[in-house]
Amino acid sequence: MRQSDYIMALDLGTTGNRAIIFDRNGQIKGQAYRELTQHYPQPGWLEHDAAEIWREVRWAMQASLENAAVAAEEIAAIGLTVQRETCLLWDKTTGQPLHNAIVWQDRRTAPLCDRLRAAGKADLIYDKTGLILDAYFSATKLNWLLDAVKQQGINDLSNVLAGTIDSWVLWNLTGGQVHATDHSNASRTMLLNLATHQWDKDLLDLFEIPASLMPKVCPSLSEFGRLDESILGVEIPIMAILGDQQAALFAHGCDRPGLLKCTYGTGSFLVAHTGHEVVRANQLLSTIAWSFQKVDGTVEVCYALEGAIFTSGACIQWLRDGLKLIQDAAESEALACQVPDTDGVYFVPALSGLGAPHWDMSARGAFMGLTAGAQREHLVRAVLEAIAFQVKEVVNAANSADARPIALLKVDGGACNNNFLMQFQADALGIPVERPEVLDATAQGAAFAAGLASGFWHDYHALVETRKVDKVFEPRANAVTTEHFARWEKAVSKAKDWTT
Ligand code: ADP
């Protein structure tokens, strides 16, 4: 019998799916990653094929083991972290999804949100869930999916299960045995009551979602089930599930009030731990950071405040796949550095509406200030600057909610590879930006959580200490002027309230 010396993290993001094998020192031993197909059936809509996600998970698990030269028997535990809010319905007898999953960025349910707001439901939803009524969250998407399924002639829901991507993948990992989610993912559905930590009956009724479809809500760090033996030939305990942003928060060691991080992936997410209290702040979301079972059997729940920005790295994907202005994401840095400024061009990254701090589902993307002198380099630079300016807006909102202004930004996520973006971010904020060596903090957080919950590791802070800083970007005086930011804010104001 081989010794179990590794933890496997499954990091199922919006752009792609990844599996990473971590050794006892918290170092990466091997990994596998592939991008996921994005389906855009209509403007403002975005779907994922859940069957493809599951196939990719199976591939990534196998490929990461091969890449690391590690046998499945050597994996002590699995940690799962996923893109949040994206949800689906599936048939528990056939194991097949009943429709493509609706992705968090999808705006199709904005009219339902508008109707609920007009009916005065926004305050009730915010009070119960800590979330701002928006098409971003799962509740209206599940309502839409249930309608679509009924239109397919499926009226008997006794075989139907609902869930976010973690529930779907957990159900498959356990061979259809376990239908569950964790508090951090559940808190993003707009159906979880922050006070009781359970599905809220009034909200399930409001969104017409039968409670019988919903997964069981469990602590983030706990044994969710065991990997079905047919998948890798051995049973492995699944010991943690976290939303991707909460997993990154965990990896950064942000386990108490005053500590925060910003992840630059498909979107950008500034998340601050708020301890054992639900803290509320204007235009920011109150949400669950994570939960765990204490020795006495009770469950401890920690909370966070979040500024959710829908489109950041997604703009880079769009420059590559939509506009074909760049061949790969890294080229955006080289192009931006070829010009001293954007030549007056500004970009509004509202490709999926605007999240924090605007919460405008009807905003749409825009290039402004174009003249005949505008070149590819200027457009690309304007996109990168806009990613940083969006984070500046959210940092400003967080600063106005807290007496202690943010003094250092700890970052992670794929777009942090971009040195131009990181330096511009530091310049625009006027504070240092600290980039770690391992940018996959999301996967790292899931691995740390699974390893701690299984007894593979014992000391959370010692684990966090193993993370190394790659580079600190120091702010340069007057590199980004207040006029430049103000001009960008003006562009944003013009792109708002567009589709109504
Ligand atoms: P997610 O978890 O949301 O899938 P990741 O953290 O894996 O996201 O990051 C992927 C995103 O990072 C993509 O949108 C990609 O375009 C962006 N990205 C990767 N490298 C760079 C780069 N050098 N410059 C800018 N963006 C980048």
From TrEMBL:
ADP binds at residues 14, 18, 266, 313, 414, 418. ATP binds at residues 14-15, 266, 313, 317, 414. Its EC number is 2.7.1.30. It catalyses: glycerol + ATP = sn-glycerol 3-phosphate + ADP + H(+). One of its GO terms (biological process) is glycerol catabolic process. Inhibited by fructose 1,6-bisphosphate (FBP). Sn-glycerol 3-phosphate binds at residues 14, 84-85, 136, 244. Residues 260-453 form the Carbohydrate kinase FGGY C-terminal domain. Pathway: Polyol metabolism; glycerol degradation via glycerol kinase pathway; sn-glycerol 3-phosphate from glycerol: step 1/1. Glycerol binds at residues 84-85, 136, 244-245. It holds the Pfam family FGGY_N. Residues 6-250 form the Carbohydrate kinase FGGY N-terminal domain. CDD domains: FGGY_EcGK_like. One of its GO terms (molecular function) is ATP binding. It comes from the Bacteria. The keyword ATP-binding applies. It is an enzyme of class 2 (transferase). Keywords: ATP-binding, Glycerol metabolism, Kinase, Nucleotide-binding, Transferase. Belongs to the FGGY kinase family. Key enzyme in the regulation of glycerol uptake and metabolism. Catalyzes the phosphorylation of glycerol to yield sn-glycerol 3-phosphate. NCBIfam families: glycerol_kin (TIGR01311), PRK00047.1 (NF000756). This is Glycerol kinase. It comes from Phormidesmis priestleyi Ana. The gene is glpK.
